Amino acid sequence: MPIEVKNLSFTYSAGTPFETSALKNISLEIKNGEFIGVMGHTGCGKSTLIRALAGLLRPSEGSIVVDGSDINGRRYDRSKLRRKLGVVFQYPECQLFETTVEKDVAFGLKHSGLNKDEVTERVRWALEICGFDFEKIAKASPMGLSGGEKRRVAIAGVLAVKPEYLILDEPIAGLDPLGREAFLELITGLNADGMTIIMVSHNADCIGEYARRVLLLNGGELVGDGSPQELFSDVERMRSLHLGVSRSREIAWLLKKGGMDIPQDICSYDRLLPAVLAHLRGGDEHD
Amino acid sequence: MSMTERMTGQFIPGASLLHSLDARAKLFGFILLTAAVILADTVAGYALIIALMLLLTAVSKLPVSTVVGSVRRMFWFFVIIFIMNCLFYSAEDPIWSWWIISLSKAGAVQGFNVMFRILIILVLSNIFTLVTPPLEITSAIQSMLKPLKLLRLPADDIAMIISVAIQFIPTLLQEADTIKMAQIARGARFESRKLHERAAAMLPLIVPMFLSAFKRADELATAMEARGYRGAKHRSGKKAAPMPAGSYASILFCAAVCAAEIII
Amino acid sequence: MIKAKDLIFSYDCEGGRHRSLDGACITVRDGELVAVLGHNGCGKSTLVKHFNALLEVQKGELTVAGLDAKSEANIWTLRRKVGMVFQNPDNQFVSSVVAEDVAFGLENYGVDGSEIPERVSAALALVGMAGFERRSPHMLSGGQKQRVALAGVLAMDPDILVFDEVTSMLDPDGRREVLSVIKRLHSQQGKTIVMITHYVEEAVFADRVYLMHDGRMLADGAPREMLTDLELLRRTGLTPPTPVRMYHDLKAAGFELPYCPLTNEELAEELCRLK
Questions:
Q1: Do A149 and A258 share a domain, yes or no?
Q2: Mutating which of B216, B220, B227 best tests the C interface, going by the most C Cβ atoms within 10 A?
Q3: What CATH number should be reported for the domain holding residue A100?
Q4: Structural domains counted in chain A
Q5: Are residues A186 and A237 in the same domain?
Q6: Where are the domains positioned within chain B?
Q7: What is the mean pLDDT of chain C?
């Protein structure tokens, strides 16, 4: 199993009056090529989980095994994990620091052992996949770019190491509709090429339309693990967790409440439309 | 998250007498008592200080372990202070001496004095920060800056700058934490042993922090302008709330302790 | 009342001079809630920063609350009459105590100190944050922070409120909280409101919508007109609300609803009626 999380717990400020447990006994498995959405109300432990998975926090209890080795094991080489697993933090554009876009994207390749030409090739690949013209952007200063461009450069910097696993924390926050669409297309493309995606977002639409599996966190506990169809089917519960469901799911739910017999496992638009059409056409034909 | 938590100080909410006192009174009292501790140099003086600490702990209604708290972890620091003072105090009648090292009774007393004072002051500041929210400490410090006006210094502007800077600290610390994590995830090596490497390794942290701090400062300046800020001199004079009588009594009490230490 | 005509604003940048406003015109009547929609970088932020003289009018005409925004003598009156809340909740606090922060504007205008606590509490109550006077802003949630920032503006009792993408950094709960306060200020307090956003759904409850692109207005009208026009939305760089998308997809498949719904509820109601 590529990523195996067993009985993971994390406690901040242990032994003080401020002791808070951010994660409580979480166990889950992540397979290669999955597209996982992680949802949870602010303070549910999402950030802690990301940091633990990325080996940036040592769990108080439990283990995280990536490709067969415990990433908190004493002899584990963390730099191996850095090349396997990329993390795009919230507002990643804040982390740019180099004088040129090319240098910034190449930063993660410093200790990769690649030669100069290979590094340039990687940087070119990463920038192009993020929608840039390499020749035009390479020598530009990242500080002079627009907000959306900066974010794509930052993501290119994470992709440059060609990680097998990509963790994203609220990647579409602050992007406008076209920016959001372009970004989600990029991620879907990477996933289609085999990259495992773990995307944290409180945007139920983007999870409902794109993720194939959803993890629900609440108060540091894993309170749901299944397909968006399964988890979104209980609209009331999602609301009680302060999460809400995708708009397509909400429409299906409202239709059912209004007396229309429509499947309640719909959470994306490309299933909602055919279902509504089938209903309007067929009347009582069910498939 | 962990860093911001530390930033909120060690304040523990409570309803004790110490909690309810005005922060300015507590700050003033803290300064007076610190002076008293430094002045204490007789057995009676020490006894008074110890009695006072027990009294404060009891009144604060905090568990002793919390009050002593971080001080316990500094055990070796105190041992070293004691030994250093013992060994390097040049007394006239050393019990034993060699080269610059001399062991004497006076040295031991001196070692004990220094150790005792540091320990008590640390516990005292612990109690002060445990019963006073950090933001009240800030405004207490600000109101103590007021006399600067007499020296024709722009006390109001300074107070404004301090206030703005302090409220930015938690945000900036949190951001520093995130950027550090992000760069480590990208393969940055902050833990490098070699000094020159470590300095270079800090750039991915320092550059974004600077940029972000400037951006934030710029946005805040715009927001302040939008709310009509044009220098502290245009602002309505803020009258600080008068201190309640109990607070004056507590200052008086601390002053009495201080005076007692001078007399003893 | 805001009346802007042919505003032009340009600044120097790496690739030469960039024109972020290119003949922008907008009219906001008293008591109206106007949403300005546009993608990032279309100039909507630049536009509203003219309303309280944060940016100087380079070219064009602008009158706000009866004052000529071009006259330097009006700057401080303008800033008092036009309250503005910004995008990043973390970058607008001046104090680590909520009450002191809310009082900031009042103190800047020399409001008598004895009046301040009352006005601060009243403003906090208006945004549903009564009782938070002694709290520290950085310990609040994003939605609460934005509401405190709004209280700081409301304490000055401005005629016009300008919201510069105030929900874009908030989680769904925070967005809901802030939007409901904005709606309430409009309906109960009768405030004139200009709200800029790129969330099409947030414009649904506006009285009027402006669609902005490349520094000028493409169109303006009622939300029901503006947000149902696929071609117009596409040209503005926006995506239609889900019900609008569905209306058009159903129409293409031969099912026409009596009108184009704007909200999920309207869509569900019409579909169920069609059945």
A1: no
A2: B227
A3: 3.40.50.300
A4: 2
A5: yes
A6: 12-132+242-263, 148-229
A7: 93
Q: How close B161 gets to chain A, by Cα (Å)?
A: 25
B226: nearest CA partner in chain C: C79
CB contact under 8 A, C136 and B135: yes
Report whether pLDDT(B91) > 70. no
ipTM of the complex: 0.90
What's the pLDDT score for residue B262? 84
Asked whether the predicted pLDDT for residue A218 surpasses 80, the reply is: yes
Subunit contact C246:A259, Cβ cutoff 8 A: no
Helix, strand, coil % in chain B, rounded to nearest 5: 75, 0, 25
Per residue in C192-238, pLDDT (tens digit) is: 999 999 899 999 999 999 999 999 999 999 999 999 999 999 999 99
pLDDT per residue as tens digits for the range A73-125: 988 988 889 989 999 999 999 999 999 999 999 999 987 888 999 999 999 99
Best A97, A111, A168 member to test B by mutation, with max B CBs in 10 Å, is A97
Across B1-82, the runs of DSSP E, i.e. the strands, are none
Residue A150 and residue B177: Cα distance in Å, rounded?
A: 20
| Confidence bin at A183 (pLDDT 50/70/90) | very high
Q: Model confidence at B4, in pLDDT bands (50, 70, 90)?
A: very low
Measured between CA atoms, how close is A136 to chain B, in angstroms? 24
Q: If you count DSSP H runs as helices and E runs as strands, how many of each does chain C have, helices first?
A: 10, 10
On whether both A268 and A223 belong to a single domain, the answer is no
* Å between A109 CA and nearest CA of chain C: 29
Residue A287: the pLDDT is 42
Interface test with A, best of C46, C196, C242 (most A CBs within 10 A): C242
- Chain A neighbours among B 143-202 (CB < 8 Å)? 175, 178-179, 181-189
Interface of C with A (CB under 8 A): 13-14, 39-41, 141-142, 168-169, 171-173, 198, 200, 237-239, 242-243, 245-246, 249-250, 253, 255, 264-265, 267-269, 271-272, 274-275
**pLDDT at A106 (0 to 100):** 95
DSSP A28-43: EEE-TT-EEEEEE-TT
Whether A121 and A147 share a structural domain: yes
B8 near C CB under 8 A: yes
Chain-chain contact of B186 with A97 (C-beta, under 8 angstroms): no
pLDDT digit string, tens, across residues C26-47: 999 999 999 999 999 899 999 9
Q: At what angle do helices B134-145 and B23-39 cross, to 10 degrees?
A: 80
Q: How far is C217 from chain B (nearest CA, A)?
A: 25
Q: Does A278 touch chain C (CB under 8 A)?
A: no
Same domain, A149 and A172: yes
Neighbour count for residue C213 (Cβ, 10 Å): 20
Residue A210 to residue A198: CA distance in whole angstroms = 11
| Residue A27 domain boundaries | 3-245
Low pLDDT (below 70) residues in chain C: 275
Instruction: Please give the C-alpha separations between residue C104 and each of B160, C95, C101, C145, C188, in angstroms, as whole numbers.
Output: 10, 9, 5, 15, 25
Cβ distance of B204 and A97 shorter than 8 Å: yes
Domains of chain C, start order: 2-221 (3.40.50.300)
Residues A9 and A117 in one domain: yes
- Range list of H helices, chain C: 44-51, 75-81, 98-108, 116-126, 142-154, 172-189, 223-226, 230-236, 242-252, 264-274
**Residue C34: in which H helix or E strand, if any?**
strand C33-37
Question: Chains near B, with 3+ CB pairs < 8 A?
Answer: A, C
- Chain C within 8 Å of B228 (Cβ-Cβ)? yes
